[in-house]
Every structure is written in C-alpha cells, then in structure tokens.
From TrEMBL:
Domain of life per record: Bacteria
Keywords, alphabetical: Lyase
Pfam families: DHDPS (PF00701)
Residues at the active site: 143, 171
UniProt cross-references to InterPro entries, sorted A to Z: Aldolase_TIM, DapA-like
Transmembrane segments: none
PANTHER family for this protein: DIHYDRODIPICOLINATE SYNTHASE
UniProt name for this protein: Dihydrodipicolinate synthase family protein
Family of this protein: Belongs to the DapA family.
SUPFAM superfamilies documented for this protein: Aldolase (SSF51569)
GO molecular function per UniProt: 4-hydroxy-tetrahydrodipicolinate synthase activity
Lineage summary: Bacteria, Bacillati, Actinomycetota, Actinomycetes, Micrococcales
Amino acid sequence: MTSFHGLLAYPITPLTPDDAPDLDALAGVVGRAVRAGVDGVVVLASSGAGVTFTPDERDTVVRAAVGSASAVGATAGSPRVPVHVAVSGTSTRDVVAHARAARDGGADGLVLAPFSYLPLDEEEVVAVFEAVASAVDLPVCYYNRSVQTAYDVTPDALARLARTATVSAVKDPASTPARPTGRVATLRAATEGLGVSVGLSGDAAIVGGAEAADAWHTGLAALVPEEYVALRRARSAGTDPGTQVATWLRDLTAALASLRPVSGFHALANLIGVPTAPPRGPSLPVPPDGVARLREVMSRRPGRSNAG
C-alpha cells in the first residue's frame, strides 16, 4: 500500500519576525499532528508556501519535520509517520533538484503539481514526472491543481504516469467548477491494479461530505488535528463523528474560505498558540475583521476554553 493513505496533514511553514522559517514552531505543529493520529505529513506544499523558500531553507524545513515525526514515533515505540515533501518548481531542473534534496533529507515520498509560466500540455506533464522517476526512487503523489495550472489530469494520463513513472497517488480537488460527480470512482477504475491512492483536497467539500476517498489532503488538519482525525475515523467507519465536531469544522472552513488561503492558516496558527509572522509576500496578512471571525469560531471549539 502506498503511504499516501488516510489523513494527510499539510502544515504551514511558521516564520520568525525576521522572515526565516521557525523550525521549533514547525516541529511543534508536526509533532502535535502526529500525536493526534494523522496518517502522514506533507511539508512545503501550497499551505507551507514551499515555492517561497531557498534550497537551504527547504532543507532545514524537511529535516525539522522528519526529526519531529521521528521523535514522536520513538517516544511511542511505533514506526515514524511518513513525511512527504512538495517539490514543485518552475522548471524540470528545479523539480528534480528539489526531489533529490527531499530524498536526502529523509522524505518518504514526494508531492508534485506540475506548472510553468505557460500552461503545460499532457506530454510536458508526463515528461516532468518521468524525469523525477529517473532521478529519485520515491513514490510521488500527483497534486492536481487544475484551476491554477489550467491542466486537469485525465484518468488515462494518471494511469500512464502510474505505469511509466513513480506516481502512486493523486490529490484531486473535491470541488471545482464543472467537476463531474463520481470522479473518485472514475480515477480508481482507470488505475485499477496499479496501486494508486485516490485522495481529495478542499476542506469545505471534505468536511461537508465529499465522496469517499482513499485519502484526505488538508492544511487545516495540521492546525486542528484532533477534530479532523475524529471526523476521518468516523467517516471511514461509517459512524457519526458527533454533531458538535462536524458543525464546528464546517464553521471553521467557512470562515477560512472568506480569507486568502495561506494567510488564513497563519492567522489561525497564531490563535491556537503557534507563533508565526504572516506568510511571505505577495501574500498579505489577514485584516483585523478576518482575524475576529476566526477568533469567534475558535471560541466555540468543542471541549476547549476560548481561544486567542
């Protein structure tokens, strides 16, 4: 089974006041998520603003996340939860360099959204993944950012990548304009027998009851892992996660949906006690009224005292 199964948490990369990665804060976020029961961690993806960091900064982030997950596993006497690394870049050369560095830093797998200054076609997309497979022997999750990249991976292309590259998973948007129903079933059918995990992203759709999938990929799960783990386990077992938890997560995702994505996560991190500056520009900090909306929702967090 690929390690891209279950609940995969995508943490922010906390920043110090002087705009450097706060490795202690990152280790705390990763450790808490692992202790709460997430099935994997993915650093330096869109939630972690990976494309804004230098190679040296990326390396420190990967090693801090792997070290934190390893420490929790050692304390619990259990295997380390997989740590995956997003390796997107504006050129194939950059992507391959990121992939090699992630491997050397201890990554268990890679997450790749292929993009360029101009939209790629299918042959160019396939070539990027095959270049990674030639350079690094790690499983890869195809991060399908169809709206942002103007390329929506087809079932046939995903099957092709599973055969010719090391693609063993897909992170597909749970809800996009004109997305047909039954998408998960279609991708599963196209990759039957190839060992591909079909996962979904998009907190509002996931929390709201998106179709069943092999994995949930979510940045919010890294910040409120206890509630997200409870929801995932209940949905997987076909049981009720509890109205209070489900309602609160829906309210939180609704509040975040009104904010810029990465900026909203940084503001939420501060409210739960994770110190971080706003994300690097061009992202802007959440304005005070947005912080107030998040604070109000956090004050209703089930089983917790008022936050912030």
